Amino acid sequence: MIEDSITIINRLGLHARAAAKLVNTASGFRSDVRLSRGSREANAKSIMGVMMLAAAKDTELLLAVEGPDEREAFEAISALIRDRFGEDE
Amino acid sequence: MTVGILLITHGRVGQGMLETAGYMLDELPTRARSLNVDSNRDPDELDARARELIATLDDGDGVLVLTDLVGSTPGNVASRLASEADVRVVAGLNLPMLIKVMNYATLALDELAIKAINGGKQGILPVEGP
Description:
The complex is a heterodimer of chains A (89) and B (130). Chain A is of the alpha+beta class. Chain A is 35% helix and 26% strand. Chain A is built from 3 helices and 4 strands; from the N terminus they run βαββαβα. In chain A, a hairpin with a 2-residue loop joins strand 2 and strand 3. In chain A, helix 1 packs antiparallel against helix 3. The model of chain A has no long low-confidence stretch (mean pLDDT 95). By secondary structure, chain B is an alpha/beta fold. Chain B is built from 5 helices and 4 strands, in the order βαβαβαβαα. Chain B has a 4-stranded parallel beta sheet, sandwiched between helices. Chains A and B meet through helix 1 and helix 2 of A and helix 1 and helix 4 of B.
């Protein structure tokens, strides 16, 4: 398992469009992917779950990935978040 | 092969929701259309139009019909379709329901109908401050 904290840095936070991209990315991997905010844990392949985290800009989340392609999955998702989901700010 | 989605709603509610979902997801993962219903339209005409849309949307996996309000004209149009073998109807359309359905676009019709109901319910909750 790979687990580390990651901060949401884009202005609009983990809004619907960003959540959809994250779910799309996570769903491309076989590994189990979880995102947590405090005590609240979401399956990162479920758009409703991710949206319910209501993670605004500067929110720190815990990303946990476990499975056969966990390294690639962790990297891809981290990169997406670091890249502000492709948004300008 | 995926289930087709047909929204049957008052005015332009369904159209607005499809446009919003399309914007959020960049593109919709499955065929989806909206039938906008005004109460002054003839029910038989609406029924015929709905069936036309269902034929367009069904590529063999059936069609999930989402309607806004049971007992209203759109709801009644939708309920007439519920006895078809390859159609399932769910009422109480809200944006969380539609987004959940789009998230699970490759599921079979019966399972997708359950996801629609769960998605709709999951989106209803009191909101705490940040």
